[in-house]
Amino acid sequence: MEFKVDVSHAMQGLDDFTMRLSSLLVESDEAAKEAVYVGAGILADEVRKNLKANIEDPASAAKNGKSAFKRLHQKSTGDLEKGFGITPIKIGRDGNWNAKIGFSGYDSKGVPNQLKARAMESGTAKLRKRPFVRPALNAKRAAAMDAMREKVSDRIKGITE
Amino acid sequence: MRFDALKAALLTVGVPVSHYVAHKQTDKYIVWAEDGQAGSQCGDDGATNQIVQGTVDYFTKAEYDENVGAIQTVMNGVVSWRLNSVQYEDDTGYIHYEWVWESVHGV
């Protein structure tokens, strides 16, 4: 008695699956970069919104409402807003793709923007605390993670389906 | 946790304690504040728990101030916390310690 098994169809399916897995491997870096781009954008937008609200706040930035710090919103040069941004998306030593959101550069008086941002976020002995980064992260962390997850899922679906 | 539990704990450190803003600042003082929600749990179409976040700030002109450790000790058991930043202020000579705390509140 002769017994034959036709494996050609099964092999063809396996080849296709292997090819898709290879594509996934190749494109995973691009997917990760896109996800970081989306997530960082959501967080940065919220930080920028809070920063703008602080800058435009007509209340004195001083702890005791001292005149020297009144109407700071009318004197704003916009240097702090201009110094805010997202670094290029790079892969770290741990193999994870990441970007940093923060401040760089100096204002027109030579004061580091990072110092000004820290003084606004944490307050000083003279300036009242006006947190804008931490609340932004608290408010949008879940939304950013959801958006990143969705971006990666869409990318994987595009390859595997 | 009730917020006054944190205030009561901080008062045991032995320096003036203010809520949000310190008026008539002395050499060493603490300012604490609650400033938002860090998370929540929901069930049955409503919030069941709320994680409130805030800060404790300590201003001192003394190096190696023992109150820093005392503040951390008294916060234990009342709130969960982390030391967020330590800054030296050139213009005032203050060393500024800032802790971020979180506490779960039933709703």
For the structure shown, list the relevant keywords.
heterodimer; A: 161 residues; mainly alpha; two-stranded antiparallel ribbon; 5 helices; 4 strands; B: 107 residues; alpha+beta; STM4215-like; five-stranded mixed beta sheet; 2 helices; 49% strand
One letter per element, helices H and strands E, the order of chain A comes to HHHEEEEHH
Question: What is the share of helical residues of chain B?
Answer: 10-25%
Strand order in the sheet with the most strands of chain B: 1-2-3-5-4
Order of helices and strands of chain B: HEEEHEE
Q: What proportion strand of chain A?
A: 5-15%
Q: How can the largest sheet of chain B be summarized?
A: 5 strands, mixed
Number of helices of chain A: 5
Main CATH class of chain B:
Alpha Beta
The pair of chains with the biggest contact is: A-B, 15 and 25 residues
Q: Give me the count of strands of chain A.
A: 4
Approximate shape of chain A = rod-shaped
State the end-to-end distance of chain A.
Answer: 42 Å
Helix content of chain A: 55-70%
Biggest sheet record of chain A = 2 strands, antiparallel
The average pLDDT score of chain A comes to 86
Question: So what's the oligomer here?
Answer: heterodimer
State which percent range the strand residues of chain B make up.
over 45%
In total, the number of strands of chain B is 5
N-to-C terminal Cα separation of chain B, in Å? 11 Å
Structural class of chain B: alpha+beta
